[in-house]
Specification:
The protein is an alpha+beta fold and 74 residues long. The protein is 18% helix and 50% strand. The chain has a 4-stranded antiparallel β-sheet, with helices on one face. Strand 3 and strand 4 (53-68) form a beta hairpin.
């Protein structure tokens, strides 16, 4: 069994749609304040653009954990 984690940072873009940027295997002790700071930096520096235009706001953030169990089949 393997557990994978990813940090999903959710933004809104100029078209009003939600855009998710993901970081695979974030630090175990990452804090909400650190994530918020990183998201604010991404917005302030206009690092990314989307088909709906530039990122314009923070919609949320979450850590998603996924458990995978391999089955032996023949």
């Amino acid at each position: 069994m393997a557990i994978t984690r990813r940090l999903e940072m959710q933004f809104t873009n100029a078209a009003g749609r939600r855009v998710t940027l993901a970081v695979v295997e974030p630090r175990d002790n990452v804090t909400a304040a650190e994530v918020q700071g990183a998201m604010q930096t991404i917005l302030a520096r206009n690092v990314f653009t989307t088909s709906g235009g530039d990122l314009t706001g923070i919609a949320g953030a979450r850590i998603v954990a996924r458990e995978v169990t391999e089955l032996q089949v023949t």
